[in-house]
Amino acid sequence: MSSKNAFYAQSGGVTSVINASACGVIETCRANGDRIGKVYAGKNGIIGALTEELIDTSLESDADIAALKKTPAGAFGSCRFKLKSLDENKREYERLIDVFKAHDIGYFFYNGGGDSADTCFKVSQLSKTLGFPVQAIHVPKTVDNDLPITDVCPGFGSVAKYIAVSALEASFDVASMAKTSTKVFILEVMGRHAGWIAAAGGLIEDYGIPVLVLLPEVDFDRDKFIAAVRDKVENHGYCTVVVSEGARNADGSFLAEQGTRDAFGHAQLGGVAPVVANLVRDALGYKFHWAVADYLQRAARHIASATDVEQAYAVGRAAVELALDGHNAVMPTIERVSSDPYEWRIGTADLADVANVEKTMPLDFISDGGFGITDRCREYLYPLIRGEDYPDYDDNGLPRYVTLQNRLIEQKLPAFDL
Known about the structure:
Helices cover about 35% and strands about 20% of the residues. The protein folds into 2 domains: about 5-140 and about 305-355, Rossmann fold (3-Layer(aba) Sandwich); about 155-300, 3-Layer(aba) Sandwich (Rossmann fold), CATH 3.40.50.460. With about 425 residues, it is of the alpha/beta class. Helix 1 (about 20-30) runs parallel beside helix 12 (about 305-325) and helix 9 crosses helix 10. Strand 1, helix 1 and strand 2 form a beta-alpha-beta unit.
């Protein structure tokens, strides 16, 4: 039986370990060269498939592919582009089939979050709806940790570690200056509908830090919040606030909603940290500082969680193994076997159960007052941030991150307008 080529692409917001998943996919394909031919990577995600901009990863050395495991962001470029339904835009699916046929592609590996799972699921149906055989496997990734079924999403552990460390270090700084200067520090973190990342900031309470966590899962109560800040400052001299970008009012509106939408139709959020800071200033008059972790939190490969790196590589490898076993429309998952000691294994989920489903924090992970986390949440979080997998550093003191050649193959089809 002749081997088919594979298509791999990265989608949505990148992470510090998504390239480890890419490494897992490509290395496993290379190890099965008798059954899988070349691996073509989409330039800028699924857009690369539609525009026939395919990167020939066979031109990259084994050493450079291995170096992806220690390199942040998306080596092949990512995108925020969601395929519409077949009924709404049949031409996109026909174009995918044309590209796959032209380059003998029979395997589709899409590395992303919830919207990417939806795209992957739609591609998986090509054989049924349009008669073209392709095996589509979703490779999970999202810093928001909001994919269902899987215990954790690769990318989250490293962001959680970065936020916990950053909040801890900044709090030490504020404690040093609180007597005559800053009394409240606000750190804004990612998390549109799920507060997993902000919850990681709550871990610093275990180190004696007076911290308040604002989660999307808890309606924001201004008076209750101001009273909590006042209590922390009066009893400890200062207070750290970790706020999710998705913090919302009781009516469902975001504290920082701008009234615009992104490419996926999600509300475009502004900075919630200054909104919270101004509330504190107006109500209490405390001197404050605020910061937005933004891209820093998801790009921080220098302090990635060793657990996260291992799991990111494992799901990439497992995706290929699932395809070779004949699976379609599935996603490899992380199954927690034990928290103490921490043990996990790879499982499998049907994409029909994953696409467009968001996993928020369980209520028993949130403290009674709504501004902190419970011991059960700590038991969940700590194993995910343990261990370090530092990159190599050059003589100038900067990490050795790899930049691939990303050479495109020759196009065979007419141009396609998105």
